[in-house]
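Fold it.
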Amino acid sequence: MIAMLELIADFGLLDPWLLAAALPLTIAALRRARRGTPALRFAPAALAIDGAARQAAFPASSRVRLRGLPRVLQALGLGAALVALARPVERVQQPLQIAGIDVLLCLDASSSMALDDLDRARSRLDVAKDAASRFVAARTHDRIGLVRFAKYPDVVCPPTLDHDALQQFLLGIALVDENAPEDQTGIGAAVARAAQVLRSSDARSKVVVLLTDGEENVARADTPDEIGPLRAARLCAELGVRVYTIAAGIGRLLPSRVFQPIDTTQVRELAETTGGTFYAATDARSLIEVFASIDGLEKNRYEEPRYELEDRYRPFLLAAVALLVAARALRATALRVLP
């Protein structure tokens, strides 16, 4: 019953005032019915059989019993035509839209990510890939991409909804060789490259999640042409890109096998300048919790339900035509009345 009432509530008329035409049509039909149909003159009434005898002698045929059917069909047809003219409409809910987010994961692949201080059984990079994989799996409606960086950033996968492919790219990230020319940490260049990728995005929210275990050592005082973290932060702020930064590990491993805490000032300011948040993760569990926290902050937003009015006059118009044609056909053939 409730479902039926809800269904009725979704229907309406754009021009209900046209139904007022039904009143004069009804009055005209009643007046005509009271007058009766015209008759031909036959023999004098004295020669006619009285009503009771005639009924007994000549029982009414099916055609006689149905002689009023064309009038009923005509009335129904006119009624359906009036409803069609009143423009019946149905309120139809459109598919719910999800305002997704474009995310770029920036993972540090420098050789220091081989350390196992986050998890004795795995390297920093493996722990980071596992946490990032969980993050991707939880965000099915977002386009997510991947940037691998050491000295130079490399866009491994642009933002995509094909998360299966992204997961494969994520698993395939490898460390750069220790002491190779590329074995540095270019945080600013990586974030700037991510912002460049997201520049053309039409998503309501554009996010970069940067994970590193070191400090910026590409953009220095003696390399003014390189992009440092703060310069990259200003670029992101201009483009509306929010950056979350994660410092993974307990610090830099010195030759003495002692860990020295890294300076997180730049990555902290990078996040704050863009409206993001800085996190420190010192073990595998805390890194998973960091990604979960970012996931909670960057929730998908569902747009308000949208409705459209769709015309529903066609069934009534077709019914009106069919009923009026049927009434006319019956009057001209099987139920024809003289005169």
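The chain has a mean pLDDT of 83.
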